[in-house]
Design goal:
By secondary structure, this protein is α+β, with helices and mostly antiparallel strands. The strands form three sheets. Strands 1, 2, 3, 4 and 5 form a five-stranded mixed β-sheet that branches. The chain has a four-stranded antiparallel β-sheet with strand order 8-9-10-11. A two-stranded antiparallel ribbon has the order 6-7. Strand 1 and strand 2 form a beta hairpin. Helix 17 crosses helix 23 and helix 19 packs antiparallel against helix 22. The longest helix has 21 residues.
Amino acid sequence: MLQALMNYGQGLDSEPGFKTREVRWCVELASDGRFLSVLLLGDGRRGTLHPRCPDMHNMNAGGKSHFLVETVQTVTLLFKANEEAQKIASTKEKHCFFVNLLRKAADSSASMAALVKVMTDESSLVELRKALTEYKAKPTDWLGWHVDGHDPREEKNVQAWWRAWRQAAMADGQADSSPSSQNGEPHTMVCLLTGQPTEPLPTHPKITGLSGVGGLGTGDAMVGFDKAAFGSFGLEQSANAAMSADAAQRYVDGLNDLIRSHSRKLANALVVHWFKERVAQEDDPLEWLNGFESQEQTEAAALGAARRLLESIRKGERGDLGNNQYYALTLSGASGRVMVRDWMEGQFEELVRNVEAWFVDLAIVARDGKGQAPDPKFYEVCLALIRNDRAKSISENLKQLPAPMAATLWKVAVQCLPIPQPLIAQALARFRSDLIQDEPFNHARMGLLKAYYVRLQPGGAQAMTAYLNPDHPEAAYHCGRLLAVFSSLQRAALGDVGAGVVQRYYAAASQTPGLILGRLTSNARNHLGKLGGGMAHWYESQIADVMGRLGDGPPRLLDLEGQGLFALGYYQQLGALREGKRTNDSAQGETK
């Protein structure tokens, strides 16, 4: 996993001592150091990503600051109202260190001399603070510079000075040194990622961007050993997983870039994915799982795209994709550490095949019986497992879903695995609850139930189809069908009666059909007597046909799998009744 992340990071501008930061403010200076203006960067919600910002990894503790690019608070001494005196004192110490670094770098570039001039002029600092206050800048926002229209961060001379200063500071012991042996000599170990001899980096740079899934705003450690119980052979800190500074920086930069640019929140976890060779977004199967932007694209678009791409690969028209590989990582944060909840990798063609199977298995008749429901987005499948509060946003509702459950469902989709029974138990509980409360059917939930049986055993797809299957081999399925016919009969005979046969009897009928369906059959005779001859005859034939599939009669008890079949039989029979006695065979004939 770390090897793949390091390889991804090699394609970035990665180097120890530099980091990509989200910079929100830019101070415009004239070439002579005069303060001109402050610019707000980004779209108003987020700043602009600036690569190669000097980074004081493990060197900015004890009153030290980063070089050149720092927070508004450290650079300008702008504090929030009622800031603690201790915080003000420590920030002033960092401010002095920041200014001294600029002084030391002044000879490297004319732009650095301009920065020193503005930072050592109290009236310029007052003016700068006033401008930032008017723009409502936050003390924690990152701030960069433009001198005469140029960013000193990008100047080669400035970068060279920073490298030299950092190396000297590390040699002088201002940073954590490499782990040493008992005689004081640094250890040389084999890097886990490159296989080359190296002095292991004692602590690695932080992974950022996980604050929304349990991580810290300051970042979380991917590799770290802060307890004696985690160590071995007398090694301390990250020497237990020896990596060079370059290798560690690459995997960190790679994962940080993926989190910023190629991640998607999944309940209380974050999913990132990438490919060994670049793949256009329209050819990315994992993007299809997450759904298309417009409703027009969503209608069966994902399944169609998967089939077209798979056919192109098999014909040899897309050799660039056939030999490609995918990688997918599910993450969250906990107590300052990165939690890796899942890791997947495999061939690109296999991924396309699995995504195609996901949408085929989820295919289900629409609630009105008119064709299939649209391909569900992945978050809709997640929402099918929990109670949805319509007053809340999608992201707020998804917080109810535990991160391990979301990660499991994602793995099922990507690797074409059987669906775990606990997920089906949860989906069934939500189905019963919505049914009793007379809520509309959830297409994604019904598709997930159907996919469970398709993947449960070989040949499952033959018995469990998208539309009604009158020849289904299980009696539990036909018990559900019978309840749907009774419900339709009651509505035809009596109209809307509020709490009807479904609201009153579904829970009991789906668990003990042998005790309930006989009573409902007797009651159905009263309803038939209220209908005209033609309609009464039609309902009689429907009831007789379904009951003929039950053999010796309804089962006395149904286990969880039987209750799922009962739910699908009920739903698909209603779809057929609503459309006008459409069956799976006729549906297939019409779509060929």
